Amino acid sequence: MPSKVTGRIVKARKHASTPHNKNHRWETFTAKIAKFNSLQPLRKVRRHDLDTEDFASATSYFANGMQRWNELNVSKVFIDFKRQVLPLCESLAQILHFEDRIMELLAEHISVQDKESLEPLLDLLTAFAHDLGARFEKHYAQSLSLIVAVAGRPQDVEVIEWTFGALAFLFKYLSKLIVPNIQPTFDIIVPLLGRSKHPPHIARFAAEALSFLVKKAGAPSHRETALPKFVDHVKLDLFKMVEDRQYTLYKDGIMTMFAEAIKGAERSIHTAAPAIVTQLIDAIPESLDDHEDRTSASTQEIWTDVVCGVLTSAIHHSTPDTFGEVADTTLDKIISYSGAQNSTGKWWRFVPFFRVVGVLGGVRKGSRITNWPKLISIITQMLDKIAKEREESYPNDQEDIWKHLMVPIAIVWHHIPIDALLAHHGALVQSLTKGSLMGWFIPFCSYACELDPSRFSNLLRSEFQKFILTHWSQRENEEMLCVLLPMMIQKQAFPPQENVKAVGFPRHGKIKSSLNLRTWRFPPFRREDHTTRTPRFGETVACPSILLFYNCLT
C-alpha cells in the first residue's frame, strides 16, 4: 500500500434544522457542494426547453435551446458560437445534415471553458444528443472527453453542477447505446472517479452519474451479459492501482458507484440491487494457493473490501423491509459457495464470506436483518468445515484469522436475537472448541465478554470454564489467560471472590503447582507499586493474572 493517500469520499450529512430564508447570503464551497445532487437530471421526466409536448418530426431540442439561450446569454464566447451555428439549425433536417459542423463548433467553444458560456453550451450539447439519438454515437467519445476536461479542472460550484448535469443527461438519452458495453465510457470517466488527482466531491459526482448506467446494466436484459463484463473490467482496473497513492480515493469512488446503483428513491432499494450484489460477490477472486505469501493485501481482500463497503452503504440507506431481498440474495450466494466446498476447508477460503456476514449482522447493530436463523446457520456450517481442517501455520495468519473470522463472528453473536442464537449456540461453541479453531476460543470469549458481559455470563461462561480446565496448558492458552483474564474479571464476567464456589470450578492441584512454578514469557505486567517490568528469560515469577484465576479455582 502507498505511504500517502488522498482523501476519502464522505457524503455531507443533512441536518434536520429549519432551513434559513436568506437566499442571498454567502455560502462556503463545501456548503454549496453539499446541496448539489448530480443525479437530479436523471429524475426529471422531460426537458425544460420545450414548453409543449410536440413530437412531430420537425421538432428540434437543439433549435428550441438556441432560441431560449439567445435571449438569456450574451457572453462573448456564446455570441461567437451563436453567430456561426444559427444558420445551421433552422430545422431538424438541417441539423442532421450539418451535424459534424455543429459538433465541431460545440467542441471548439466548450474547450475554451469560459464560465459565462459553459451553461448554455453544455445544455445545447445534451439537446444535440437528444436530437440525433443513435446518430450521436460517433460524437459520444468526444463529448465525454470535453466534459471530463471541464470537470477535471478546479471550477466553481455552478460549473460543476452544469458539467455533471450534462453528463447525466447524456447517460439518460443514450443509455440504450451505452449499457451493452459500458467499459469505454468507464475508461473515459475513470480519471474523475479518483484514479487521477481530483477532490473527493468530484469522484462522488462521477460515481453517482455512472451508477445510472450500472442500474441499467442490472436490468434482466443485461445482467447476464453487460454487468459481468463491466464488473470484471472495474475489478482488474482497481487491482492495477494498489501501489498508487490515488488507490484509496479510487476504491471509494468504485464503492460509491456500486452503492448508488443499489439505492432507490427515499430509503428504498433498486430492483436491480440483488443482481448487482450477486455479481459483486461472484467477482471475488478465488482463494489463495496454500503456499502463497499473504503478507500484502491480496486481490481477494481488496475486492472483498469493495463488496463490504457497498453493503455497508446500502444498509445505512435502507430499512429492514427494503433491505430484506438483498440480504436473502447475499446469504443464498454464500450458502451455495459453502455447499460447493469439500467437507473440510482452509480458513482463508471462507474469509470473504465471514466478512460479508459480519457486515450484514454488525452494521446498524444488525437491525436490517430479518432472517437471523439463516445467517447464524451459515456461520456454523462454515465454522464446522474450518474446524475439521488440520491446523497449519503461515506468516501473519494470526492477525488475519482474528480480524476476518473471530471478530465478525463475535459481532454477530453480540447482535443476534437470543431466540435465534440459542438454537445454534451449541454448534457454534463446538466448532470453536475443537480442531484448528480451539486456539481462538479464549480470545473469542474475552472479546465476547467485552461486547456484552451479561450475555457472556449467561451463554459462554460455563463453556469457557470447561474449556480452560481441559485445555489450559495447551498451545499459548496459559499466556493468553495471563493477559485476558484480568480484563474479563474487570468486566464482571465472573461472580465476586466471596462467591467463588458459585463459579463451578473444581479444585485442581496440578494447576496450582504449575501456576506457582511456571516460567513466563509475556509482555510487561503491572506490579503492586504501579510500575511495569518484563521478566527476564528463565526467571520464575508469579503472574498476577494467573493468581487471580487460581483464586477463582480455589
UniProtKB/TrEMBL annotation:
Region (Disordered): 1-22
Residue ranges of coiled coil: none
Gene3D superfamilies, alphabetized: Leucine-rich Repeat Variant (1.25.10.10)
Any one cellular-component term (Gene Ontology): 90S preribosome
Biased composition (Basic residues): 10-22
The organism's place on the tree of life at top rank: Eukaryota
Annotated InterPro entries: ARM-like (IPR011989), ARM-type_fold (IPR016024), SSU_processome_comp_20 (IPR052575)
PANTHER family: SMALL SUBUNIT PROCESSOME COMPONENT 20 HOMOLOG (PTHR17695:SF11)
Protein's UniProt name: U3 small nucleolar RNA-associated protein 20 N-terminal domain-containing protein
Protein species of origin: Bionectria ochroleuca
